[in-house]
Design brief:
The chain has 212 residues and is an alpha+beta fold. The protein contains five helices and eight strands; from the N terminus they run H-H-E-E-E-E-E-H-H-E-E-E-H. Strand 3 and strand 4 form a beta hairpin. The longest helix is centred in the C-terminal third of the chain and has 11 residues. The chain binds a DNA duplex (13 and 13 nucleotides) through strand 3, strand 4 and helix 4.
Amino acid sequence: MVRLPTRLDRSFFDRGTLLVCRELLGKSLVRLDDRGRRVSGLVIEAEAYIGMEDLGCHAHAGRTARNASMWGPPGDAYVYFTYGMHWMLNFVTEREGFPAAVLIRGVAPVEGLRAMRRRRKGRPLADLANGPAKLCQAFRIDRHFDGHDLCQGTSRVFVEDRPPVPDEAIRSGPRVGLDPVPEPWRSMPWRYRIHPEHVRYLVIQEERDEIA
DNA sequence: AGCACGATTAACT
DNA sequence: GTTAATCGTGCTC
């Protein structure tokens, strides 16, 4: 029997951030455009940012207009602007009032490759969404989605369930880009990614819709 | 009002 | 390996 993919609901995100981060790997990030067309890809890399104690987390300096979404309910988006040109997509985790989120750092394109390539100025498949700012370009995600409820039925950005990825296919290590952050936060192994060989296998399962 | 910085990327040498 | 791009944000004056 064929099961239609189901959208992850709030209970998925209302758990420990490391668990959510780990389990987001292999799920499908979906973006619907204004005509209902799908751009999608499998989450292949993600990082956890957990609470005000975590000196690598934007929440550590307290709540501001920019990072307020992190204190919101699980399943909301936290989208912020950085380096004068880049947007970053996070999913808020844990109970409302506790600031934590998972940064989506990489996606393997599956649907809407043409739209992605247009938005990414004709770059090769491998460079379409293999970075936190790149995937926001490819999926056209910006401040419009900050504080947006991704679990609501009308959301144009959401995550669809997929089978769990086995532990053997997953690597973890220190988070990226935290050079000035003091230990132990700088070295916490809160970055998770799927081994490239297994990504290849998963994408084949998805039957990618267009020729590279 | 001014200023330093950034959970990055692309284009260099 | 290095570095410019580019600007919203948060902090200081």
